[in-house]
Amino acid sequence: MSHVLVTGANGLVGIALCRALRDAGHIVTGLVRRATQPDSGLNEWIDPGPDFVGIDTSWRAESQIDCVVHLAARAHVLHDTTANPDAAFHATNVDGALRVAQAARRRGVRRFVFVSSIKALAESDAGRPLREDDPPLPKDAYGRSKLAAEQALLNFGKASGMEVVIVRPPLIYGPRVRANFLSLMDGIWKGMPLPLGLIEARRSLVYVENFADALVCCATDPRAVNQCFHVADAEALTVAELVRSLGRHLHRPARLLPVPKGLLRAAGRLTGRSSQIDRLVGSLQLDTTHIRTTLGWKPPYSADEGLAATACWYRSTHQGRAS
């Protein structure tokens, strides 16, 4: 049994991870900016300050913590109005992560699991699934900040003796998902025609319960020490397959239009959304061989089971909003 501190414990991944850790018999403490509902059952530390500048004050003296799983981050922003996006992402995702790691090490924490992103490596797979040792080529401020945080934490681990584990997921989905994935379900629910019928490129995703299961392994398995792992569902679907599956589980027919990729790219240029269109029509598959062979991990749920659970949540909580 371990005592695990989870930052960002009240987010999409944090909720699933805390539940998975408790189910596995571990003690869990959540470090959050705002208190959750009183019935959440989570032992919480509140750190309302920006970028964990007050972490030494927020850190409470109690039983020894064995591992920190760092989920808290400045997330990818589609329409960022910050004057200097690189500086804003760096302040939270690099400086903030280092403050948590340093505070943890001062208190004897032996392992730090950092949830990075596949965007620290690339936006597309260039013809084969991305491996952990591929040369990193992040394309935006978010990806650059995640790569810089990986490097800074690995250097800190080498200097301090702390065990650092890096985990890179693709897009994470599941109940309470937000942003583009939620918008996609809204469009399917409303019967909107989607120009995605001819997109054959495959995209790796990860169901939140699969990701939480992998993080439990990374937090507790001695074989994870100082490793970097890609984590994804076993199946990489095309965008059209994803839409059809969601439509089936939402009980709404998916209206897919057969629009050629060239026309989509032209529309992207005209609307200033070329980067979004390129990501949509490009392949992004992850090679998860390393975590499978090193930790013996495999996703406990299929992609179809994950999409079914996500659609069930949507039907139960969003019908009124999206109708």
UniProtKB/TrEMBL annotation:
Residues 4-225 form the NAD-dependent epimerase/dehydratase domain. Its EC number is 5.1.3.26. InterPro entries: Epimerase_deHydtase (IPR001509), Lipid_A_modif_metabolic_enz (IPR050177), NAD(P)-bd_dom_sf (IPR036291). GO terms for molecular function: isomerase activity. Keywords: Isomerase. This is N-acetyl-alpha-D-glucosaminyl-diphospho-ditrans, octacis-undecaprenol 4-epimerase. It comes from Paraburkholderia metrosideri. The gene is gnu.
